[in-house]
Amino acid sequence: MDDATLAALSTAASAAFDVGFAAMVGALATRALLNDAASDWALRCRRRCRRLLLRACVLALAASLAWMAVQAVSLTELPWGEALLAVGGIVRDTPFGRAWAVVVLALALAIALVVAHQRRATPLASLAVLAAIVAAAHASAGHAGANGLGALTLVMAVHVLATASWAGPVFAAALCMPRGDVPTVDGPDHARRLSMLATASLAAVALTGGASAWHESGGTLAPMLTSTRTDWGVALDVKLALVAVAIALGGFNRFVVMPSLPSGWRRFERVLRIEAVVLLAALVAAAVLANGEPPVV
Q1: CB neighbourhood size of 238 (10 A)
Q2: Which of 171, 196, 232, 296 is deepest in the core (most CB within 10 A)?
Q3: Contact in structure between 80 and 69 (CB atoms under 8 Å)
Q4: Torsions phi, psi of 173, nearest 5?
Q5: Distance of CA 148 to the CA centre of its chain
C-alpha cells in the first residue's frame, strides 16, 4: 500500500478518535452539568447522554485500533495480516506503542463501566479519571511524547482534554437536547453553564496550543506564518478559520441569544447545532495537521 493511502487512513482514524473522545468528554460533562436538574427535559437529556457516552467510547476505541493497524503496516511494510501480528512487538519496544496500549485499556475499561451501570448511576468521577488518562496517553503517543515524558507532553495532554471539553459538550448538547421542548428553568441554566465551560476550555486550548506551536517551531512562528502555500499551511488556515467561526457562533449565542432565554430557545438550539458542525470540521482539520509535516525551522 502506498504512503499516500496510509497517510489518508491514519488521518481518518485520528479524526474519528478525536471526534469520539470529544463526544465522550462532552457526554460526561453534560451529565455533570445537569446532575442537579429534575425536570423531564433534563432527565431525557441525561438518558441520551448515557447512550452517546457508550457510542463515543466505542468509536474512540475502534478508531484507536484502526490507527495502530495503519501504523503497523507503515512501520513494517508488510501485508495487513502479517503487520497486525507485529503490533505486540510495537507495543513492547516503542514508547508510542505503550502509550497507545494505555489508551486502548482505558477506553475498554470505560466501556465496561458504562455497560455495567446501564441501570445504575453513571460513575462520572471514575469515567472522568479514565478520560484524563486517555488524554495523557494520547498526547504521549504523538509528537509531544517523541522525546519522552516532559513538560510538552503535559501541555499537550491539557490541550487534548481542553479541546474535547470545548467541542464535546457542544456535540452532546446538539445531539442530546430533546427537540420540541422549551425548558423554562433547566434549559437556560444549562446554557449558562455550557457557556462558562466553553469559555474556560477555549482559554486553555489557546494557551496550550500557543505554547505547543511555539515549542514545535523552535521559538519562532515565522515558518508557520510563511507556510500558506503548502498543504500543511492550507490545513492550518482552514482550521484557524473554522475555530474563528465556532468562537463567533458561541459568542453570538452567549451575548445575543442567551439574554432572551427561554423565549429564544429555538434560536439558541439552531446556532448550537451549526457550531457543532463547525467544530466537527475543525477536529478533522486538526487531524490533518497532526498527521502532516509542519514547516521546518
Answers
A1: 17
A2: 171
A3: yes
A4: -65, -45
A5: 23
pTM attached to this predicted model: 0.93
Using CA atoms, how far residue 138 sits from 12, 58, 225, in Å, is 16, 16, 27
Contact between 229 and 159 under an 8 Å Cβ cutoff? The reply is no
Q: How confident is residue 144, by pLDDT bands cut at 50, 70 and 90?
A: low
Q: Tell me the three cell numbers of residue 250.
A: 458561541
Q: Which strand (E) or helix (H) includes residue 95?
A: helix 95-116
Q: Are 37 and 189 in contact (CB under 8 A)?
A: yes
Percent of the chain surpassing pLDDT 90: 76
Question: Hey, what's the cell of 183?
Answer: 425548558
| pLDDT tier, 3 (very low <50, low <70, confident <90, very high otherwise) | confident
Angle at 107 between CA 103 and CA 109, to 5 degrees: 120
Alpha-carbon span 138 to 23, nearest angstrom: 16
**Residue that has been written with the C-alpha cell 496550550 in this structure:** 208
User: 39: which 3 cell numbers?
Assistant: 425536570
- Mean pLDDT value across the chain: 90
Per-residue burial over 74-86, b = 16 or more CB atoms within 10 Å of its CB, e = otherwise: eebeeeeeebeee
The C-alpha atoms of residue 218 and residue 235 are separated, in whole angstroms, by 20
What are 9-42's pLDDT values in tens digits? Answer: 999 999 999 999 999 999 999 999 999 998 999 9
Residues 45 and 176: beta-carbon distance below 8 Å? yes
Q: ω before 262 within 30° of 0 (cis)?
A: yes
46-50 contacts at long range (C-beta below 8 A, 24 or more positions apart): 48/175, 48/176, 48/178, 49/172, 49/176, 50/114, 50/118, 50/122
